[in-house]
Design goal:
Blueprint: H1 3-6, H2 45-48, H3 54-65, E1 73-77, H4 81-93, E2 98-103, H5 106-114, E3 119-122, H6 128-134, E4 142-147, H7 153-161, E5 162-170, H8 184-190, E6 193-195
Parallel strand pairs: 1-2, 1-4, 2-3, 4-5, 5-6
Helix pairs in contact: 3-4, 6-7
Keywords: Metal-binding, Oxidoreductase, Zinc
Cofactor: Zn(2+)
Domain Alcohol dehydrogenase-like C-terminal: 82-200
């Protein structure tokens, strides 16, 4: 560590990181005991690498932030590694009846189907929202939606794809100062929810 990095520390102040206190790219780090998980010495650390964000954040949003229920429907926007964890959590752990994967890459949609998604929708389709809603019983819209792309415009798309009393969350980070337009009357009339999520709330 550099002197500049350590200059703000003192016996009264603990050292910390400003990136979720995880020092993702550091070889060594100081971490609070609540953030440490002991693994057997023979464990291949390459197997642990995706757990911290990929699984924790992806699956955590489904299991904690949204609390997806068995038999419900979910749209997952962006099925890279983190979004793919959401697909698996919804389909295999929570038993969602409908899991719609949305992405710009057909290969990712195909993999999502292998891992439990019931439907795949291209993210640049003109009728994307209609396709998502059509995947649900009676075309009423999904019960849950979650975005892993970090594209602000997806917030409105998620909310439009929700059914009555639906719940949406954004996990992908667009950066500070970004905003999204929503239809306030649609939110109010249909009781839709938009909730924050930090690392899957896990």
């Amino acid at each position: 560590p550099s002197a500049a990095m350590l200059s703000s520390s003192s016996p009264q102040k603990p050292l910390f990181s400003t990136f979720f206190s995880q020092s993702s790219f550091a070889r060594h780090t100081l971490a609070h005991k609540s953030s440490v998980v002991r693994v057997p010495p023979q464990t291949d650390l390459a197997l642990c690498a995706p757990l911290g964000c990929g699984m924790q954040t992806g699956a955590g949003a489904v299991l904690h932030s949204l609390d997806v229920r068995p038999g419900s429907s979910l749209a997952v926007f962006g099925v890279g590694s983190v979004g793919m964890a959401a697909v698996v959590a919804a389909a295999k752990i929570r038993g969602a009846a409908v899991v719609v994967a949305v992405d710009l890459q057909p290969a990712r949609l195909a993999l999502a189907r292998e891992l439990g998604a019931t439907h795949g929708v291209l993210g640049d389709a003109a009728d994307m929202v209609a396709q998502i809603r059509a995947a649900t019983p009676g075309g009423r819209g999904v019960d849950f939606a979650v975005d892993y792309t970090g594209v602000p415009a997806v917030v409105r798309t998620m909310l439009d794809a929700l059914g009555s009393r639906g719940r949406a969350s954004m996990v992908g980070a667009p950066g500070f100062g970004k905003t999204a337009a929503v239809d306030i009357m649609d939110m109010l009339t249909y009781g839709k929810e938009y909730v924050g999520c930090c690392e899957g709330d896990s």
